[in-house]
Amino acid sequence: MDARFNLFDSPTAVKVAKRFHNAGSAIAQSTLPKSTQELVNLRASQINGCAFCTDMHTKEATAAGETPLRLHLVAVWREATVFTGAERAALALTEEGTRIADAHHGVSDATWAEVREHYDDDQIGALVSLIAFINAANRFNVIVRNPGGSYEPGMLATALD
């Protein structure tokens, strides 16, 4: 399977991707735990059917030391015992923030209260930004049908630096 369009062949898309990647660096450097960041990225990518991002974030999480068990259970996190309360709150926010069109009121007050219980204001800012960013990245890749399977850890950062 090949992508229907290579975004790196478009000078405008490359400029956007570089700026997008640089803006995302603020999230990566935040105090939001890296493991939480990868779980959020993976879950949103699964929901959105983004093969490229699912591949990338699974491999980046693995390279950062995440366990295969937790990665396998992200899709069914509500029924899994391997996630902390904070991670569960982040995953709930990810699902509700990703499925905005599916819920009349968007993110529920109950989910927001759980997030507030586990994260400080800066971490919440990073978490909300991360959810918005990964949803945008998923759309780039789903629109052009970027396939998953060939990503290597660090590959995207190298391409955009």
What's the quick description here?
This is AhpD family alkylhydroperoxidase. Pfam families: CMD. With 161 residues, the protein is mainly alpha-helical.
Commentary on this structure:
Residues 21-96 form the Carboxymuconolactone decarboxylase-like domain. Pfam families: CMD. The mean pLDDT is 94. By secondary structure, this protein is mostly helical. The protein has one domain: Up-down Bundle (AhpD-like). It has 8 helices and no strands.
Topology:
Blueprint: H1 11-28, H2 34-48, H3 51-63, H4 68-73, H5 85-98, H6 109-118, H7 121-144, H8 155-160
Helix pairs in contact: 1-7, 2-3, 2-5, 2-7, 5-6, 5-7
Q: What labels describe this entry?
A:
mainly alpha; AhpD-like; single chain; globular; 161 residues; 8 helices
> Total number of helical segments?
8
Rg, nearest Å: 15 Å
Query: Could you say which overall geometry the principal axes of the C-alpha atoms support?
Result: globular
Class by SSE composition: mainly alpha
Largest sheet: none
Range of helix content? 55-70%
Strand content: under 5%
CATH class descriptor name:
Mainly Alpha
* CATH architecture label name: Up-down Bundle
Number of domains: 1
Give the uncertain stretches in residue-range form: none
**Total number of strands:** 0
Average the pLDDT over all residues and give the rounded result.
Answer: 94
Q: H/E series, N to C?
A: HHHHHHHH
CATH superfamily, by name, is AhpD-like
- What gap, in angstroms, lies between the N and C termini? 27 Å
Would you give the CATH topology? AhpD-like
